[in-house]
Structures are given as structure tokens and as C-alpha cells.
UniProtKB/TrEMBL annotation:
GO BP terms in the entry: innate immune response; positive regulation of canonical NF-kappaB signal transduction
Residues in FHA domain copies: 49-121
Pfam families with a match to the protein in the record: FHA (PF00498)
Locations listed in the record: Cytoplasm
Name of the protein this chain belongs to: TRAF-interacting protein with FHA domain-containing protein A
Residue stretches of biased makeup (Polar residues): 161-176
Highest taxon listed in the record's lineage: Eukaryota
């Protein structure tokens, strides 16, 4: 047998790709402490924490509007399965965390979908999980987006559309405003 045949099988590693966007990145450099385009190993028994407190969080966001710990990610294996997942938990008492369309309040947590968008404040993060086999650690691979991940043109209109399909905003109001009348007045 050759040494190639005797070599141990190389284990693949789960990798969490995260693409970050903030509209003021160029001016404020809120991501200046993140290591972009470099894979980093995180032990499976550690929680990946994102926030502004560098003594607690490995992934620092340099913004006073970000909580000391904004959110955490926990790597785990599903019960009776070989599938590895991440659980995301909102650690901010002040800011809601939105994962795709799910809003998380303080200490709420959900499984991170395989591909999703995480939002809080002006921050947008595209998270994509690349499957692996290693149980000892996972990797993070951070990227910086130049343009918003969520494009405004893709967002649904916040204006309700009446059943007849004609929006009141389609017609000028002609200077009229609603008038409140007491029911006893004639």
C-alpha cells in the first residue's frame, strides 16, 4: 500500500459565509475590525458573537448604535442526524433582529436558514452555509458588499392596496383633508 492509500480521509468543514453591508461603511468604517476574505476557525463549543464589545465579541462592529453583544451564532448537530446547523439568537435589548421575514426580540432564537438575510438597524448581512462534516470546529468567511444586499426596488410597498386595486395616492387630494365632526353636530 502506498502512503497515499494509507492517508486519513480529509474532513470537510462547515463554513458560514457572511457578506456585510452598511450604508456608512465608507465614512465610518464600521467593519474595520472584521477580517474579510480570510477563513477563520471557530471551535464547535464556542459561540460566535457579533457586537461592539471587543472583550466579549470576536466579530466587532465599530458603531455606538450596535449593542455590546448584538447577536450570537451557535453551531450544533441536529438530534439523530448528521446535519449541522446554526442557531441565531438576538442578544440586544434595544434592537430587533430580522432573519429573512422573522423578527426576533431580545433572547429570541431560531435556526439559521441555509441562505438568508439578517438585518438590524442599517446593517444587512447575507448568510450562506456551506455544509461540512467536521464536528470539532466550523469556519467563518466574511465578505464586504459594495452595494445594499436588499435593494429598495425589491422591497414590497408599505402602502396598502385597496380591494378595487386603485391606490388613493394615485389621485391628487385636491386640497381636501378629513374633517372630524361630533356626532351631536348637524
Amino acid at each position: 500500500m502506498s502512503s497515499f492509500e494509507e492517508a486519513e480521509t480529509e474532513e470537510t468543514v462547515t463554513c458560514l459565509h457572511m457578506t456585510f453591508y452598511h450604508p456608512c461603511q465608507e465614512d465610518k468604517m464600521v467593519f474595520r475590525c472584521l477580517n474579510f476574505c480570510k477563513r477563520e476557525q471557530v471551535r464547535a463549543d464556542e459561540m460566535a458573537k457579533f457586537g461592539r464589545d471587543s472583550s466579549i465579541c470576536h466579530y466587532n462592529l465599530m458603531d455606538t448604535r450596535v449593542s455590546r453583544i448584538q447577536f450570537s451564532l451557535q453551531f450544533y448537530r441536529k438530534l439523530n442526524s448528521s446535519e449541522f446547523c446554526f442557531e441565531i439568537k438576538n442578544m440586544s435589548k434595544k434592537t430587533k433582529l430580522i432573519v429573512d421575514q422573522t423578527e426576533l426580540g431580545y433572547l429570541n432564537k431560531i435556526d439559521l436558514p441555509w441562505k438568508c438575510i439578517i438585518c438590524f438597524g442599517d446593517y444587512q448581512i447575507l448568510a450562506e452555509i456551506q455544509e461540512g462534516e467536521s464536528m470539532d470546529y466550523f469556519e467563518t468567511y466574511l465578505h464586504l458588499a459594495e452595494v445594499p444586499i436588499l435593494q429598495e426596488r425589491c422591497l414590497p410597498s408599505l402602502q396598502p392596496t385597496p380591494e378595487n386595486g386603485i391606490s388613493a395616492s394615485s389621485f391628487p387630494s385636491q386640497g381636501k383633508s378629513p374633517i372630524e365632526i361630533d356626532e351631536n353636530e348637524s
